[in-house]
Design goal:
The strands form two sheets. The protein has an 18-stranded mixed β-sheet that branches. A two-stranded antiparallel ribbon has the order 9-10. The two termini are 22 Å apart. The longest helix has 15 residues. The C terminus is likely disordered. The protein folds into two domains: 132 residues, Diaminopimelate Epimerase, Chain A, domain 1 (Roll), CATH 3.10.310.10; 124 residues, Diaminopimelate Epimerase, Chain A, domain 1. 15% of the residues lie in helices and 36% in strands. It is an alpha+beta fold and 301 residues long.
Protein backbone atom coordinates (compact mmCIF):
# COMPACT_ATOMS: atom_id res chain seq x y z
CA UNK A 1 0.00 0.00 0.00
CA UNK A 2 1.35 3.43 -0.95
CA UNK A 3 2.08 5.66 2.00
CA UNK A 4 0.48 8.66 0.30
CA UNK A 5 -3.09 9.53 -0.69
CA UNK A 6 -4.65 12.34 -2.69
CA UNK A 7 -6.00 15.36 -0.87
CA UNK A 8 -7.45 18.76 -1.75
CA UNK A 9 -7.29 22.09 0.01
CA UNK A 10 -10.80 23.57 -0.17
CA UNK A 11 -12.96 26.01 1.75
CA UNK A 12 -16.60 26.36 2.62
CA UNK A 13 -17.38 30.05 3.08
CA UNK A 14 -13.80 30.52 4.26
CA UNK A 15 -13.86 27.50 6.59
CA UNK A 16 -10.47 25.92 5.77
CA UNK A 17 -10.95 22.26 4.81
CA UNK A 18 -8.63 19.45 3.77
CA UNK A 19 -10.47 16.67 1.93
CA UNK A 20 -8.39 13.48 2.12
CA UNK A 21 -9.22 10.44 -0.03
CA UNK A 22 -8.81 7.34 2.18
CA UNK A 23 -10.98 5.06 0.03
CA UNK A 24 -9.58 1.58 -0.51
CA UNK A 25 -7.47 1.74 2.65
CA UNK A 26 -7.79 0.41 6.19
CA UNK A 27 -5.69 3.08 7.91
CA UNK A 28 -6.77 6.54 9.03
CA UNK A 29 -5.49 10.10 9.12
CA UNK A 30 -3.69 10.17 12.45
CA UNK A 31 -3.93 12.96 15.04
CA UNK A 32 -0.17 13.44 14.60
CA UNK A 33 -0.65 14.00 10.87
CA UNK A 34 -3.45 16.48 11.54
CA UNK A 35 -1.31 18.45 13.98
CA UNK A 36 1.62 18.48 11.54
CA UNK A 37 -0.57 19.66 8.66
CA UNK A 38 -2.10 22.40 10.78
CA UNK A 39 1.36 23.60 11.87
CA UNK A 40 2.30 24.29 8.24
CA UNK A 41 0.95 27.66 7.01
CA UNK A 42 0.29 26.18 3.56
CA UNK A 43 -1.92 23.38 4.88
CA UNK A 44 -3.32 24.99 8.02
CA UNK A 45 -6.95 23.97 8.32
CA UNK A 46 -10.06 24.01 10.48
CA UNK A 47 -11.24 20.46 9.70
CA UNK A 48 -10.00 17.42 7.81
CA UNK A 49 -12.71 15.48 6.00
CA UNK A 50 -11.30 11.97 5.42
CA UNK A 51 -13.37 10.02 2.88
CA UNK A 52 -13.47 6.28 3.63
CA UNK A 53 -15.26 3.37 1.97
CA UNK A 54 -18.90 3.13 3.10
CA UNK A 55 -19.71 1.10 6.20
CA UNK A 56 -23.49 0.98 5.70
CA UNK A 57 -25.58 -0.10 2.73
CA UNK A 58 -27.08 2.78 0.80
CA UNK A 59 -24.33 5.25 1.72
CA UNK A 60 -21.64 6.67 -0.54
CA UNK A 61 -18.89 7.04 2.05
CA UNK A 62 -17.93 7.09 5.70
CA UNK A 63 -16.56 10.51 6.63
CA UNK A 64 -14.03 10.76 9.45
CA UNK A 65 -13.65 14.35 10.69
CA UNK A 66 -10.63 15.75 12.54
CA UNK A 67 -10.11 19.15 14.11
CA UNK A 68 -6.87 21.06 13.80
CA UNK A 69 -5.75 19.92 17.27
CA UNK A 70 -6.07 16.27 16.18
CA UNK A 71 -9.31 15.64 18.06
CA UNK A 72 -12.35 14.08 16.40
CA UNK A 73 -15.36 16.13 15.34
CA UNK A 74 -18.85 14.70 14.95
CA UNK A 75 -20.12 17.16 12.38
CA UNK A 76 -18.88 19.75 9.88
CA UNK A 77 -21.42 21.24 7.50
CA UNK A 78 -19.00 23.40 5.52
CA UNK A 79 -16.65 20.44 5.17
CA UNK A 80 -19.48 18.22 3.98
CA UNK A 81 -20.21 20.67 1.15
CA UNK A 82 -16.54 20.46 0.15
CA UNK A 83 -16.75 16.65 0.05
CA UNK A 84 -19.86 16.86 -2.13
CA UNK A 85 -18.16 19.22 -4.58
CA UNK A 86 -15.06 17.01 -4.78
CA UNK A 87 -17.03 13.78 -5.33
CA UNK A 88 -19.47 15.42 -7.76
CA UNK A 89 -16.55 16.61 -9.89
CA UNK A 90 -15.06 13.11 -9.84
CA UNK A 91 -18.21 11.04 -10.42
CA UNK A 92 -20.76 13.33 -12.05
CA UNK A 93 -23.24 12.45 -9.30
CA UNK A 94 -25.30 15.19 -7.71
CA UNK A 95 -26.93 13.40 -4.77
CA UNK A 96 -24.98 11.80 -1.93
CA UNK A 97 -25.56 10.02 1.37
CA UNK A 98 -22.75 10.04 3.93
CA UNK A 99 -22.32 8.37 7.29
CA UNK A 100 -20.50 10.07 10.19
CA UNK A 101 -20.30 9.39 13.91
CA UNK A 102 -23.18 11.88 14.23
CA UNK A 103 -25.40 9.88 11.85
CA UNK A 104 -26.50 9.99 8.22
CA UNK A 105 -26.13 13.14 6.12
CA UNK A 106 -27.91 13.61 2.79
CA UNK A 107 -26.58 16.21 0.37
CA UNK A 108 -27.19 17.49 -3.15
CA UNK A 109 -25.28 19.76 -5.52
CA UNK A 110 -27.56 22.19 -7.37
CA UNK A 111 -27.23 23.48 -10.92
CA UNK A 112 -25.90 26.84 -9.69
CA UNK A 113 -23.07 25.08 -7.84
CA UNK A 114 -24.44 25.63 -4.36
CA UNK A 115 -24.78 22.56 -2.17
CA UNK A 116 -27.50 21.65 0.32
CA UNK A 117 -26.78 19.39 3.28
CA UNK A 118 -29.52 17.92 5.45
CA UNK A 119 -27.92 18.22 8.88
CA UNK A 120 -30.66 16.22 10.60
CA UNK A 121 -32.69 17.13 13.67
CA UNK A 122 -31.46 19.49 16.38
CA UNK A 123 -31.04 18.16 19.91
CA UNK A 124 -32.19 20.25 22.88
CA UNK A 125 -32.13 17.81 25.84
CA UNK A 126 -29.48 18.90 28.34
CA UNK A 127 -28.02 15.41 28.84
CA UNK A 128 -27.72 14.78 25.09
CA UNK A 129 -25.97 18.07 24.21
CA UNK A 130 -24.40 17.32 26.78
CA UNK A 131 -24.35 19.73 29.73
CA UNK A 132 -22.93 19.12 33.18
CA UNK A 133 -26.07 20.49 34.86
CA UNK A 134 -29.73 19.80 34.26
CA UNK A 135 -31.69 22.54 32.50
CA UNK A 136 -35.34 22.09 31.66
CA UNK A 137 -35.17 24.87 29.07
CA UNK A 138 -31.94 24.96 27.09
CA UNK A 139 -33.05 27.90 24.96
CA UNK A 140 -31.48 30.04 27.70
CA UNK A 141 -29.12 28.78 30.39
CA UNK A 142 -27.27 30.47 33.23
CA UNK A 143 -23.74 31.09 32.00
CA UNK A 144 -21.83 34.35 31.69
CA UNK A 145 -18.45 35.96 31.09
CA UNK A 146 -17.57 39.18 32.90
CA UNK A 147 -18.81 40.97 36.04
CA UNK A 148 -21.95 39.52 37.62
CA UNK A 149 -23.75 42.85 37.52
CA UNK A 150 -22.62 43.72 33.98
CA UNK A 151 -21.61 40.56 32.06
CA UNK A 152 -20.00 40.84 28.64
CA UNK A 153 -21.73 37.67 27.42
CA UNK A 154 -24.56 35.83 29.13
CA UNK A 155 -27.57 33.52 28.87
CA UNK A 156 -26.66 31.48 25.78
CA UNK A 157 -28.96 29.17 23.89
CA UNK A 158 -27.43 25.70 23.87
CA UNK A 159 -28.12 22.70 21.65
CA UNK A 160 -26.44 20.01 19.58
CA UNK A 161 -26.21 19.63 15.81
CA UNK A 162 -24.25 16.41 16.27
CA UNK A 163 -21.77 18.52 18.24
CA UNK A 164 -22.37 20.88 21.20
CA UNK A 165 -23.09 24.57 20.55
CA UNK A 166 -23.59 27.63 22.73
CA UNK A 167 -25.06 30.72 21.04
CA UNK A 168 -24.56 34.06 22.79
CA UNK A 169 -26.92 36.80 21.57
CA UNK A 170 -25.32 40.24 21.22
CA UNK A 171 -26.60 43.67 20.19
CA UNK A 172 -23.28 45.08 18.96
CA UNK A 173 -21.23 43.97 15.97
CA UNK A 174 -19.94 40.44 16.66
CA UNK A 175 -16.45 41.54 15.56
CA UNK A 176 -16.28 44.05 18.42
CA UNK A 177 -15.96 41.27 21.03
CA UNK A 178 -12.65 39.65 21.94
CA UNK A 179 -13.75 36.13 21.06
CA UNK A 180 -10.12 35.06 20.83
CA UNK A 181 -9.91 35.63 24.60
CA UNK A 182 -13.37 34.43 25.65
CA UNK A 183 -13.54 31.49 23.23
CA UNK A 184 -11.15 29.06 24.95
CA UNK A 185 -12.62 29.85 28.38
CA UNK A 186 -16.13 29.07 27.20
CA UNK A 187 -15.16 26.08 25.03
CA UNK A 188 -13.60 24.43 28.06
CA UNK A 189 -16.12 25.64 30.65
CA UNK A 190 -17.12 22.93 33.17
CA UNK A 191 -20.69 23.28 31.88
CA UNK A 192 -19.58 21.47 28.70
CA UNK A 193 -18.09 18.04 29.52
CA UNK A 194 -17.33 17.43 25.82
CA UNK A 195 -16.37 21.08 25.22
CA UNK A 196 -18.50 23.27 22.95
CA UNK A 197 -18.51 25.48 19.88
CA UNK A 198 -19.03 29.11 20.93
CA UNK A 199 -20.89 31.50 18.63
CA UNK A 200 -21.70 35.20 18.90
CA UNK A 201 -24.89 36.03 17.01
CA UNK A 202 -26.39 39.39 16.11
CA UNK A 203 -29.93 39.28 14.70
CA UNK A 204 -30.22 41.91 11.99
CA UNK A 205 -33.76 41.14 10.75
CA UNK A 206 -36.42 38.40 11.05
CA UNK A 207 -34.60 36.60 8.22
CA UNK A 208 -30.91 37.45 8.75
CA UNK A 209 -28.20 36.93 11.37
CA UNK A 210 -24.48 37.79 11.60
CA UNK A 211 -22.24 35.31 13.39
CA UNK A 212 -18.70 34.67 14.53
CA UNK A 213 -17.55 31.33 15.96
CA UNK A 214 -14.86 29.87 18.15
CA UNK A 215 -14.78 26.20 17.13
CA UNK A 216 -14.16 23.40 19.56
CA UNK A 217 -10.75 21.94 18.75
CA UNK A 218 -10.00 24.52 16.04
CA UNK A 219 -10.23 27.98 17.61
CA UNK A 220 -11.29 31.09 15.71
CA UNK A 221 -12.44 30.08 12.23
CA UNK A 222 -13.70 32.07 9.27
CA UNK A 223 -16.91 30.01 9.19
CA UNK A 224 -18.61 27.05 10.85
CA UNK A 225 -21.55 25.33 9.17
CA UNK A 226 -22.93 23.46 12.16
CA UNK A 227 -22.70 26.68 14.20
CA UNK A 228 -24.70 28.49 11.52
CA UNK A 229 -27.34 25.75 11.77
CA UNK A 230 -27.37 25.94 15.56
CA UNK A 231 -27.70 29.72 15.39
CA UNK A 232 -30.60 29.59 12.94
CA UNK A 233 -32.46 27.00 14.99
CA UNK A 234 -31.84 28.82 18.26
CA UNK A 235 -32.93 32.15 16.76
CA UNK A 236 -36.21 30.65 15.57
CA UNK A 237 -36.67 28.70 18.79
CA UNK A 238 -36.38 31.86 20.87
CA UNK A 239 -38.66 33.89 18.57
CA UNK A 240 -35.90 36.11 17.23
CA UNK A 241 -36.29 35.10 13.57
CA UNK A 242 -38.32 33.05 11.15
CA UNK A 243 -37.45 29.38 10.53
CA UNK A 244 -35.53 30.23 7.33
CA UNK A 245 -32.68 32.73 7.62
CA UNK A 246 -29.57 33.95 5.86
CA UNK A 247 -26.42 33.61 7.95
CA UNK A 248 -23.61 36.05 7.15
CA UNK A 249 -20.32 35.11 8.76
CA UNK A 250 -18.80 38.39 9.91
CA UNK A 251 -15.23 37.05 9.79
CA UNK A 252 -15.65 35.98 6.16
CA UNK A 253 -18.04 38.55 4.63
CA UNK A 254 -16.81 38.38 1.04
CA UNK A 255 -17.30 34.65 0.50
CA UNK A 256 -21.09 34.65 0.39
CA UNK A 257 -23.62 33.50 2.94
CA UNK A 258 -25.49 30.43 4.11
CA UNK A 259 -29.21 29.80 3.79
CA UNK A 260 -30.49 27.76 6.74
CA UNK A 261 -34.00 26.35 6.96
CA UNK A 262 -35.36 24.55 10.03
CA UNK A 263 -38.16 22.65 8.30
CA UNK A 264 -41.46 22.35 10.13
CA UNK A 265 -42.56 19.20 8.31
CA UNK A 266 -39.79 16.95 9.61
CA UNK A 267 -37.76 19.09 12.07
CA UNK A 268 -34.65 18.74 9.88
CA UNK A 269 -32.12 21.54 9.39
CA UNK A 270 -31.03 22.12 5.79
CA UNK A 271 -27.99 24.24 5.04
CA UNK A 272 -27.29 25.60 1.55
CA UNK A 273 -24.12 27.38 0.51
CA UNK A 274 -20.96 27.36 -1.63
CA UNK A 275 -17.76 25.32 -1.62
CA UNK A 276 -14.48 26.24 -3.29
CA UNK A 277 -11.56 24.14 -4.52
CA UNK A 278 -8.13 25.76 -4.00
CA UNK A 279 -5.41 23.21 -4.83
CA UNK A 280 -4.60 19.52 -4.51
CA UNK A 281 -1.68 17.24 -3.73
CA UNK A 282 -0.72 14.02 -1.98
CA UNK A 283 -0.19 13.45 1.74
CA UNK A 284 1.06 10.72 4.06
CA UNK A 285 -1.91 10.14 6.39
CA UNK A 286 0.31 8.86 9.18
CA UNK A 287 2.84 11.71 9.27
CA UNK A 288 1.25 14.66 7.44
CA UNK A 289 4.14 15.04 4.97
CA UNK A 290 2.71 16.37 1.73
CA UNK A 291 3.43 17.48 -1.84
CA UNK A 292 1.40 19.95 -3.86
CA UNK A 293 0.47 18.76 -7.36
CA UNK A 294 1.75 21.97 -8.94
CA UNK A 295 5.12 21.51 -7.29
CA UNK A 296 6.88 18.29 -8.27
CA UNK A 297 9.50 18.49 -5.57
CA UNK A 298 8.57 17.02 -2.22
CA UNK A 299 8.14 19.63 0.45
CA UNK A 300 10.45 19.01 3.40
CA UNK A 301 7.74 19.35 5.99
Amino acid sequence: MSNTVEFARMNGLGNKILVVDMRGRKDVVTPAAAIALNADPDTQFDQIMAIHDPKANGTDAWIDILNSDGSKAQSCGNGTRCVVQALAAETGKKVFTFQTVAGILNAVEHEDGTISVDMGKPVFEWNRIPLAEEFYDTSRIELQIGPIDDPILHSPSVMSMGNPHAIFWVDKDVMSYDLGRFGPLLENHPMFPERANITLAQVTSPTSVRTRTWERGAGLTLACGSAACATAVSAARTGRTDRKVTITVASSPNRGSLSIEWRERDDHVVMTGPAEWEWSGVVDPSTGKWTRDAEQEVQAR
